[in-house]
Amino acid sequence: MKDFSYFFLWLLLIFFFTSPNVILTAHAFTGTYGVCYGRIADNIPAPSRVATLLRQAKIKNIRIYDADHTVLTGFKNSGIEIVVGLGNEYLKDISVGEDRAMNWIKENVQPFLPGTLIRGIAIGNEILGSTDPELWEVLLPAAENVYSALHRLGLTDNIQVQTAHSEAVFASSYPPSAGAFREDVLQYMKPLLQFFSRIESPFFINAYPFLAYKSDPAEIDIKYALFQSNKGIYDNKTHLHYDNMFEAQVDAAYAALEKVGFPKMEVIVSETGWASKGDTDEAGASLKNAKTYNYNLRKKLAKKKGTPYRPKIAVKAYVFALFNENLKPGPTSERNFGLFKADGSISYNIGFPGLVSSKAASTRISFKEFFSSSYVLALTTGAAVLLLDSLSQ
Predict the structure, then answer these.
(1) How far apart are CA 245 and CA 268, in angstroms?
(2) Which domains does the chain have, with CATH numbers?
(3) Among 126, 266, 282, 325, which one carries the catalytic annotation?
(4) Helix H or strand E segment including 48
(5) For residues 380 and 371, what is the distance between their CA atoms, to the nearest angstrom?
(6) CA gyration radius, the chain
(7) If phi over 0 gives left and psi between -120 and 50 gives alpha, with beta otherwise, what is residue 146?
(8) Rounded to whole angstroms, how far apart are CA atoms 365 and 371?
């Protein structure tokens, strides 16, 4: 009997260490689809209800723009992977020294581990290309200090350091092969890319075909922006055809990276989306277009395929945004990017359920989810401990 128990114990341990779904280190992105969980609103559900909504929709990745403790507590044991944000307002202080970064992490990240799956820290948002050159100068040292503090805490295998850029960092992006960084940005971008290359962090870009179309509706075919059937564009340099603007924007980023010596760096879309409502001068902002864009984007990402220029690297993207945010300043479109309304119901149907209140829906775990989650880790560890205890008696 004891020999059998030892044999069973070894089987458990072999399963734990070799199963492809039970990993010892985390990635900042699972699968290809995520959402941005903005909260500039006074009428959206509490974080624990949001976690339920995301589980029902089978959305596994989110980005938030701060490290709000209520959110991080509400997502405990949800299985949803989160990238938290170190706001632009903190960068100057964090850039001063590693101790400042350590204090921030100990206050806003470490207390919520491991129950809340914090997989990344985004250092600022759209810093390079903004109109504040003082922030350009502190972005890299802030990122380095955060990484160094995470390393000292033994968290760099679990938490990725990253930053997201806007399209404003590019001098050109059409056709995709012409993608290139602005000269004034490049002196800050290149050392930043060297750092991210060293720590194996991707290049994150906020890519919005909606904004491109809105700025030039007379020249851009809306079907090209919405993934609908159209003649597309042909890139004479690469001899590649593009039938949608989203992939063209991603490949323009790849081309820009290649030009400055980073051909192997992965590009991930940190924001993309389409407004369901806008002002009279916001071309394309409509419920129909938002539904079309987000439905077709979700379908494309589900295929887990690459772009014309990087066909072997599956495209990954976070959709902006989870909710319509009624307190966001700016044009009407800014308050109408949500996949869901403030009450948790869908803004339009692209295949997601709305917020279901039943206990069964909020606690249901599928067979596939079970074997790809921490439940396996808990049961495996528990069984091993019980066996070792019985064998020692």
Answers:
(1) 15
(2) 22-371 (3.20.20.80)
(3) 126
(4) helix 47-56
(5) 11
(6) 22
(7) alpha
(8) 10
Active-site residue, from 81, 247, 266, 271: 271
d(CA 327, CA 342): 12
Structure tokens at 85: 């944000």
Question: And the tokens for 265?
Answer: 């760096």
What does each of the 393 residues of the chain score in pLDDT, given as a tens digit?
Answer: 545 445 444 544 444 444 433 333 336 799 999 999 999 999 999 999 999 999 999 999 999 999 999 999 999 999 999 999 999 999 999 999 999 999 999 999 999 999 999 999 999 999 998 999 999 999 999 999 999 999 999 999 999 999 999 999 999 999 999 999 999 999 999 999 999 999 999 999 999 999 999 999 999 999 999 999 999 999 999 999 999 999 999 999 999 999 999 999 999 999 999 999 999 999 999 999 999 999 999 999 999 999 999 999 999 999 999 999 999 999 999 999 999 999 999 999 999 998 864 344 434 444 444 444 444 444 444 444 444 455 555
d(CA 321, CA 34): 10
Could you please report the per-residue DSSP string of 190-238? HHHHHHHHHTTPPEEEE--HHHHHHH-TTTS-HHHHTT-S---EEETTT
265 and 313 Cβ atoms separated by less than 8 Å? no
> Within 10 Å of residue 60's Cβ, how many Cβ atoms?
20
φ/ψ (deg, to 5) at 155: -110, 0
Cβ(170)–Cβ(256) below 8 Å: yes
Tokens of 73: 């507590």
Q: Can you read off the two tokens belonging to residue 260?
A: 């400055």
258 among known catalytic residues: no
pTM: 0.86
Tokens read off for 256: 């820009």
CB 21 within 8 A of CB 371: yes
Catalytic residue flag (residue 369): no
Contacts of 162 (CB under 8 A, 6+ apart): 28, 83, 120, 121, 122, 123, 196, 201, 202, 204
Rounded Cα distance between 3 and 14, Å, is: 17
Give the tokens for residue 77: 């044991």
Map tokens 């929709």 to a residue. 57
